[in-house]
Design a protein that fits this description.
- The chain has 120 residues and is mostly beta strands.
- 0% of the residues lie in helices and 61% in strands.
- The protein contains no helices and eleven strands.
- The strands form two sheets. Strands 2, 4, 5, 6, 9, 10 and 11 form a seven-stranded mixed beta sheet that branches. A four-stranded antiparallel beta sheet has the order 1-3-8-7, with no helix packed on it.
Length: 120
């Protein structure tokens, strides 16, 4: 099994900054990609940003220029630095990792979720 443990998040006023981190542990043969999704009640979970083992990054258009994702491949950690936060960034943020647990099989794993609240 693979476990993802998130830390960080919290509350901030609009224009402020927060960071959230995620560490993967367990039966990890190789981590393919790690990233962050967010969800507000009544909406589907949406991609915020992800990064693969080669360093290629995708950002949602809504966060480009404000958020920065980074990862440490050796430690299987991923961090999301969120700057110039807006009230519409308020959501539960989930870490996701696509992990090979053997040389031939992979699966997606999710963190427990971290609340980010931005007040106007």
């Amino acid at each position: 099994q693979v476990q993802l443990v998130e830390s960080g998040g919290g509350s901030v006023q609009a224009g402020g900054s927060l960071s959230i981190s995620c560490a993967a542990s367990g039966e990890i043969f190789r981590t393919i990609a790690m990233g962050w999704y967010r969800q507000v009640p009544g909406n589907e979970r949406e991609l915020v940003a992800d990064i693969n083992s080669g360093g290629a990054i995708n950002y949602a258009d809504s966060v480009k220029g404000r958020f920065a994702i980074s990862r440490d491949n050796a430690r299987n950690t991923v961090n999301l630095q969120m700057n110039m936060l807006k009230p519409e960034d308020t959501a539960v943020y989930y870490c996701k990792a696509r992990v090979y647990t053997t040389p031939f099989s992979w699966d997606d794993y999710w963190g427990q979720g971290s609340q980010v609240t931005v007040s106007s």
